[in-house]
Design a protein that fits this description.
By secondary structure, the chain is mainly alpha-helical. It has two domains: 9-116, no CATH class; 135-234, DnaD domain-like (Arc Repressor Mutant, subunit A, Orthogonal Bundle), CATH 1.10.10. The protein is 54% helix and 5% strand. It has 13 helices and five strands. It has helices at 9-12, 15-18, 22-34, 44-50, 55-63, 80-83, 97-100, 135-142, 148-161, 169-184, 189-205, 211-223, 229-253; strands at 40-41, 67-69, 75-77, 103-105, 111-113. The chain has a three-stranded antiparallel β-sheet with strand order 1-3-2, covered by helices on one side. A two-stranded antiparallel sheet has the order 4-5. A hairpin with a 5-residue loop joins strand 2 (67-69) and strand 3. Helix 5 (55-63) runs antiparallel to helix 13 (229-253) and helix 9 packs parallel to helix 11. Residues 157-232 form the DnaB/C C-terminal domain. InterPro entries: DnaB/C_C (IPR006343), DnaD-like_sf (IPR034829). This is DnaD domain protein.
């Protein structure tokens, strides 16, 4: 396997990349440095912990589409072929052929999932990736559908399949209201759908599988005018940083 790794300025100098917190950028570099010759990594969570980054950093890379995540937990650097060219005499094929068979290379050399190719045969630019709580996996399976009904079906299915219980008619109507509410405030249908699924994922992660908890999360985001999962994750990261700064100032006041 080749030991040298390169990075394309077209990717790391982009606004999408530079808008991320430095910790998320650092995690991206560490992941790319440890990827195999096809850009695959089988232990992203271990690397995230090893370099001292938070789970939100990994999730932000998913939301910003810098990494693609498979249900097996393996990830791949989306722009790997843009970053790196490896000579054939040094190239070693990835061990993760099953995952590799799920993606294709776009004309731009970026990876995308086969299931997300457009009808015209050109791969779609958008990937929705599996989150730890499998929220993103459900999104990825349903990408390409633009109707409100399909989005709601995805939400309903995820709700019932992940321990929230049988979906009551009032709850299903509430989800429809939430979808429409976020869209009226300026979110795209895709973003609104992702916000609801992300709230469900948070409830699962915190073992609070009930609609009341999800509803409280969505109300909080509505009050803060969040219109995408990216905005939620960036704000969460900001709150962690502000808390750390406050703790540092308190320790300094105590003479530490």
């Amino acid at each position: 396997m080749a030991e040298r790794r390169m990075f394309a300025k077209t990717i790391i100098d982009s606004d999408a990349f530079l808008d991320m917190p430095l910790s998320s950028q650092a995690l991206y570099f560490h992941l790319a440095m440890r990827a195999d010759d096809d850009g695959f990594i089988n232990n992203p969570k271990k690397l995230q912990r090893m370099v001292g980054c938070g789970e939100d950093d990994l999730k932000l890379l998913m939301v910003k589409k810098f990494i693609l995540v498979f249900e097996s937990g393996v990830i791949v650097i989306k722009h790997w072929k843009i970053h790196n060219y490896i000579r054939s005499d040094r190239y070693k094929p990835t061990l993760y052929q099953e995952e590799k068979n799920q993606i294709v290379e776009k004309n731009s050399k970026a990876y995308t999932f086969k299931a997300e190719s457009s009808v015209s045969g050109q791969p779609a630019d958008y990937q929705r990736l599996p989150q730890e709580s499998i929220v993103q996996s459900k999104l990825g399976q349903s990408q390409g559908s633009s109707s409100e009904n399909d989005c709601l079906k995805m939400i309903y299915h995820f709700y019932e399949e992940n321990g929230f219980g049988t979906l009551a008619s009032k709850t299903s109507q509430d989800f429809k209201y939430w979808l429409q509410d976020f869209m009226q405030k300026g979110a795209s249908q895709e973003e609104a759908c992702q916000l609801i699924l992300h709230a469900l994922g948070i409830a699962i992660d915190r073992n609070k599988r009930n609609y009341g908890y999800v509803n409280a999360i969505l109300k909080s985001w509505e009050q803060q005018n969040y219109l995408s999962v990216h905005e939620v994750l960036v704000n969460d990261k900001k709150q962690v940083s502000e808390h750390a700064l406050q703790m540092t100032e308190e320790y300094q006041e105590l003479g530490f």
